Each structure stands twice: as structure tokens, then as C-alpha cells.
Amino acid sequence: MSENKIKNKQGMTEEQFLSIYDAGKYEKPSVTVDMLIFTVTKEEKKNYRKLSEKVLKLLLIKRGDHPFIGQWALPGGFVQMKESLDDAALRELKEETNIDHIYMEQLYTWGDVGRDPRTRVISVSYMSLVDSSTMDIRASDDADDAKWFSVSAKLYQEQKTVTEKGYVLQQLIKLNLSNEDDDLSALVKTVKTVEGKVTKVNREVVESNGIAADHAKIIAYGIERLRSKIKYTDIAFNLMPELFTLTELQQVYEVILDKELLKANFRRKTAEMVIETNEYTKDAGHRPSKLFRFNPNWINNME
Amino acid sequence: MSENKIKNKQGMTEEQFLSIYDAGKYEKPSVTVDMLIFTVTKEEKKNYRKLSEKVLKLLLIKRGDHPFIGQWALPGGFVQMKESLDDAALRELKEETNIDHIYMEQLYTWGDVGRDPRTRVISVSYMSLVDSSTMDIRASDDADDAKWFSVSAKLYQEQKTVTEKGYVLQQLIKLNLSNEDDDLSALVKTVKTVEGKVTKVNREVVESNGIAADHAKIIAYGIERLRSKIKYTDIAFNLMPELFTLTELQQVYEVILDKELLKANFRRKTAEMVIETNEYTKDAGHRPSKLFRFNPNWINNME
DNA sequence: GCAATAGTGTCTGTAAGACAATATCCA
DNA sequence: TGGATATTGTCTTACAGACACTATTGC
């Protein structure tokens, strides 16, 4: 493949061609990776008998310099010349959460021209799901101002306009990110245009309070993907500890989908995905429940 | 948002910071867009009574210069500083097929270090589906050596190894691309590692005959995505003309999924996606069939 | 009339949604 | 013992898969 002695129009072999190739000839954009790191944590119990509630959280970092100084951004950074995109994302994940063996998936690449005031920046976004119980607290440490925010994304307004050959569907998604100290929010507009056979989707940040750059729309997109994939894949188990009860698992689904599920049906659907153990929860203030683990041999017939 | 008078640790406002920001400080990768442009064409009828068969085709371009001189590559090119990724992809699509109002979707971003011998190249891949009947022949013109290849991707070998905490599934996909003059092929290895809760997928080109760079794996990935999305979205209609018969529609599904479907069931499933017209096919050598058009108001409850 | 495709009817098994009933721990 | 959760059962409806049957054209 590389033993190429063919000459091009200038009469050069590949070797000669490469030796004079000037990679710095054109101006180039910068490339970053941005990470959406999600986890689900338990909140305080309200009552010794009740179960603790679960909350979906996202890791954000406070920017200490321009641009967007003082605002919160997705962890991430420039891709080095000698590391692949995946490696760059893994490095970021390791640096921010000290976890290196966990689910990670490329989400989407954002490349609008005015995204960053410094220069043209193209950002490859990744989504990672981590189990809060095995996580090093490093990230929740104040040291470099990285903090977990509870997330919610709700449909705020929907508008459908029927046109000649189709319709335009405009949705406003209200994004809320908060913890003890900070309260961030954003409005993300999604416009779906259907005209004849052709469908186009456009996303735009309409309003952003405390969230850097266009990160609000990356977050909104990630949540959408998470909600969608949890229905037909096993990714939710990356948010679970080694052993868990079926109710805990259900709570994770509910907090991500933002809706309640019926217990009996949920158990039927997940039955093949888990393996029963002989262990039980204790001291729960009510009937103990059996602990399960993930079944790695689960076969997915949806994908 | 940009009216930021806050000063950073060096005492600079955002304005000052940006004025001295040097975008050329670090070495940067190059960024390209690569397009997978699919279409489905009719082949010759074998018999005046039989229907014409359909074939899935992909547009490739013959490289006229190093590297990979003489090999076939996906159309694409460097992203300009003043155009978004989508715009770059649209520009490529327009240049290659002269079509500008059609389905286009971002696929995946490929950024391994040794992808291109010239320099570090990160490639954002897009997939586009075009209706061959409305297409300008420009692309199939020999002028710049762009040609349609019929595509097939078949599972060639599958190997599952059970490990302690899961398994390793290795699949070899045989890719064949051909037209009257050229016959290209490649073997793409997909390794899925399941260990406990963590699943990783790795793709690699094992063998490539006449296909430039790592484009074989981009093609294999695109076909996989196409096969998957056709099941629960309306993207197939982008491959159809304005009016079509249900059998033609079914043929498109069959050629993409590479398997036969039952007529009655197919019609039930697509019933909501199409609108009946009063027109019929003629001179078919058998019973005429009703023509349909896409129903833009079809609501997808799978996505 | 016959080859070939167009179009419809129906049976079966499986899965999703809704709801009900029973079981078990522990302060 | 009662509050709370755990676990199982079952009815209904929807839909996917398989197969069979009828209809209509051109030559």
C-alpha cells in the first residue's frame, strides 16, 4: 500500500511528494474534544422507610480565563497531534473523574464558524456514563472548580406550522443545571423542517445563563441521545454499581426518561439483561430486595 | 454575553485577551469532510414481463495525485475557515452530484493518528441519500473520474470468544464495490469487547484493494448506519422519485437490508408513511400498480 | 390463457401497557 | 401491626411474521 512507485502529473513518486508536502500551507481550524460526563446519584432519604431518590448529574468546569470567564463549560481540551480522538477523550475523562474503564461514545461534531471567539474551533463531543459509587471524588473536589450539576431538560414550548409540502416544528427546550451554589439555565431551539421528502434539523442556543459557548446545545443533544439509547441498549448499566436492586435500576431509567414506569412491565423488559444473585439488601425499613448484576451475555436484538 | 469586562488573572479584559491570542501557537490537525453519497438505481430488465432489479450504489472518486494515487476515495475535501461543517458537506455534495436539496446527515468523525501520510487529518463523515432519477449525470461523467459503484457489505466471518467477565466478538465484513471497469474490495474487522458492564467497539481495515486510506471502514460504518436507520425512520424516501409504487419502495428496503421482505407485512408497516395517488403505472407487462408519494406528515413514534 | 405482478385477508405468537394481588421485612 | 417496598400474575391490545388467496394487466 505504501510501496507506491507510481508518479503523479509532476513526475513525483509518493516519497518525493510527501517530502515536499507543506502541512502548514493553509490556515487550519483548532480541534477540541468536549465531554458530557453523566452520573446518577442518590439523594438523602426523606424518611427511614422511604427509598432515596435518584438524580441525573453532569460534570461542568468553571472557566478561569477568557473567553467565557466565570461561566461553566464542558470538560475538554485541544486534541494533541499524536493522540487519536478517542485517546483525547479518554485522557480528559481520566483527568476529570479519575476513571478510565467506562462507557464512552462519540456524540456529534460541532463546527459552526462563530463558536469560539478566539479562533475557528471544531469540537468533537463525547458522552460518558459513570457509576458514582466507584468514582474518585476528585471531580467533585473544589480544587479546579469542577462540579456536578443536577440536570433537567424539559420541553418548554412547541409550535407546529403546516406548510405547502410539509411542516415546520419548532421546539424550545429549557435546560436547567444546578447545585448548592450555582443555578444555570439555557433555552435551546430545535427547528425541524419537513419539506417534501427532505427533513432538516437545526439547533441553536437562544438564551444561556452561565453556560459557556454553545455548550447548552451540546448538553441538550446529549440528553436526547441518552434518552433515546437507554430504551434499546444496555448503556444504563454503566451508571449502576456492580450489584443493584431492580428498583434502583428502574429509578435510573425513570430519572433519565423523566417519567414513571410500571414496575411489572419494567421487570419483564429488563429480565434478560440482569443476573440474579443470592444477596439481598438489609435494614431498609421494609422488605429487603434481591440484588442483581448485569448480564454481559445479553443479546440485543434491537440494534 | 460578549460584553465581558471581567479581568482574568493577568488583569486582562476579554477584548485585550483576544487581541493578543495567537491561534497559530500550536500545531493543528487538518480537518476534512468526507461524503458517503448513496443512491439506488434500476438495472436492465431481464424479460419484458419481469420488473427491473434495484442496486445500491455509492459515489467514489479516483485519486489523481499522491497519496493513494490511482485508488478510489470518498468525495470530500478540506474544511474552509469560513464555512461550517454542514456547509462544507453541502458544497461537496453540490460539486459532485449537482444536487443541493436532499437528505444529509453527519455520521462519525474519524481521527486516528496515521490516517493520512501527509499530516494529521481528522475527517468528519457525512451520509447523503439521493434520488437517482433527478440526478444530474455530472458525477457519473468521466470528466473528473467520479463513478458510481454498486456496493455490497456481507458478514464474512464471525468469531465469539467467551471470557471471564463477558466475551469478545470479532466480525469480518467483506466490502465489494464494482462497476463496469473497476472491482474494489476490502475486509473490515469489527471487534466488540464486552467486559463486565463495559462494551467497546473497534473498527479496523484489514485489507484494502483499491480503496484509499481508511475509507473502507467509513463505508462499512455508513452502510451499517443506513441499514439500521431505514428500519425506524423515513430516510429511504430520499432515494425515491416523487411518485413510486409500493413494490419499488420495497425493493429499496430489500436492497439496503440485503434480505427479502414479505409483501403484505411491508405494506402494512409503510401504510402510514405514504399517500395514495390516482395514477398508475402503464405498459408493465402485467397488472398496473398504483403510484404513491411520501406523506410528509407521517409521525415517527420510534425515534 | 398464462406469466407475472398487485393487492388483501387472516392466523399465530410475542411483546407492551395497565392493573391487581400477594409477600416480606422492621421500627 | 402497619407502612413501605418487593415480587408475581394476568388481561387486553397492538403488532410483527408467515402464509394463502384473489385481482388485473399485456401479450
Question: What does this protein look like?
Answer:
2 copies of one chain form a homodimer. By secondary structure, chain A is α+β, with helices and mostly antiparallel strands. Chain A has a single domain, classed as Alpha-Beta Complex (Nucleoside Triphosphate Pyrophosphohydrolase), CATH 3.90.79.10. The first copy, chain A, has 5 helices and 12 strands. In chain A, the strands form 2 sheets. In chain A, strands 1, 2, 3, 4, 5, 6, 7, 8, 9 and 10 form a 10-stranded mixed beta sheet that branches. The longest helix of chain A has 18 residues. Chain A starts with 13 loop residues before the first helix and ends in a 9-residue tail after the last strand. The model of chain A has no long low-confidence stretch (mean pLDDT 90). At the A-B interface, helix 1, strand 5 and strand 10 of A face helix 1, strand 5 and strand 10 of B. Chain A binds a DNA duplex (27 and 27 nucleotides) through helix 5. Chains A, B: Pfam families: NUDIX (PF00293), WHD_NrtR (PF21906). Chains A, B: GO terms for molecular function: hydrolase activity. Chains A, B: InterPro entries: NUDIX_hydrolase-like_dom_sf (IPR015797), NUDIX_hydrolase_CS (IPR020084), NUDIX_hydrolase_dom (IPR000086), WH-like_DNA-bd_sf (IPR036388), WH_DNA-bd_sf (IPR036390), WHD_NrtR (IPR054105).
Quick overview of this protein structure:
2 copies of one chain form a homodimer. Chain A is an alpha+beta fold.
CATH class of chain A: Alpha Beta
Strand content of chain A: 35-45%
- What fold name goes in the CATH topology slot of chain A? Nucleoside Triphosphate Pyrophosphohydrolase
Structural class of chain A: alpha+beta
Largest sheet of chain A: 10 strands, mixed
Biggest chain contact: A-B, 68 and 69 residues
Helical residue percent band of chain A: 10-25%
Uncertain runs of chain A are none
* CATH-level-2 architecture of chain A: Alpha-Beta Complex
Name of the CATH homologous superfamily of chain A: Nucleoside Triphosphate Pyrophosphohydrolase
Mean pLDDT of chain A: 90
Domain Nudix hydrolase (chains A, B): 28-174
Pfam families (chains A, B): NUDIX, WHD_NrtR
Organism (chains A, B): Formimonas warabiya
Keywords (chains A, B): Hydrolase
